[in-house]
């Protein structure tokens, strides 16, 4: 699908919001693609991000899926808008055993208030991507920003819902 952003500098807005998320810093996540209606988030393997078998923890997998989907939707919102996740589902389809996680979010439908997105999460092992999770999310546009402690208007409250 092809989408047109409402804000001419949408990529800078997305990056600023992402950079304000302390938890994403904690897991070493980074934005590697920002396009209208699409976003990619990645993190490298670290023992602190694993579960008891040494795979990436499902919480990390879900976090990257949530952010990739949320920021895909955020690319299509206005300059002063903010965003919150209102629902998401993650199917863990294979162990996330590898060197890096790559979550690719894509907008399925961008509505006036709600956006529906999907994100696929891949684990990179021996230089090849393997699907480890598939997700779908619903995100809510907050017109004019978030008035609480989520930061100034224009910052995403994404992931706090």
Please work out how many helical segments DSSP would assign: 3
What is the CATH topology assignment?
Answer: Thiol Ester Dehydrase, Chain A
Low-confidence stretches: 148-157
With strands numbered from the N-terminus, the spatial order across the biggest sheet is 1-2-4-5-6-3
The residue fraction in helices comes out at: 10-25%
Mean pLDDT reading: 90
> What is the count of distinct domains?
1
Largest sheet data: 6 strands, antiparallel
**CATH homologous group name:** Hotdog Thioesterase
Number of DSSP strand runs: 6
CATH architecture annotation name: Roll
- SS-derived structural category: alpha+beta
Describe this structure in words.
The structure is a single chain. The chain has 161 residues and is α+β, with helices and mostly antiparallel strands. The chain has a single domain (10-142), classed as Roll (Thiol Ester Dehydrase, Chain A). The protein is built from 3 helices and 6 strands, in the order H-H-E-E-H-E-E-E-E. It has a 6-stranded antiparallel β-sheet with strand order 1-2-4-5-6-3, with helices on one face. A hairpin with a 2-residue loop joins strand 1 (30-35) and strand 2. The protein is elongated, with a radius of gyration of 15 Å.
């Amino acid at each position: 699908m092809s989408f047109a952003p409402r804000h001419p500098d949408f990529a800078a807005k997305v990056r600023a919001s992402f950079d304000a998320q302390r938890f994403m810093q904690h897991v070493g996540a980074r934005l590697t693609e920002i396009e209208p209606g699409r976003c990619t988030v990645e993190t490298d393997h670290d023992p602190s991000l694993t579960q008891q078998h040494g795979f990436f923890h499902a919480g990390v997998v879900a976090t990257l899926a949530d952010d990739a989907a949320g920021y895909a939707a955020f690319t299509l919102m206005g300059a002063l808008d903010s965003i919150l996740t209102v629902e998401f589902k993650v199917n863990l389809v294979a162990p996330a055993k590898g060197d890096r996680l790559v979550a690719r979010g894509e907008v399925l439908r961008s509505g006036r208030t709600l956006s529906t997105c999907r994100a696929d999460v891949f684990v990179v092992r021996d230089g090849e991507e393997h699907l480890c999770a598939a997700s779908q999310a619903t995100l809510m546009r907050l017109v004019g920003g978030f008035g609480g402690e989520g930061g100034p208007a224009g910052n995403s409250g994404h992931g706090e819902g």
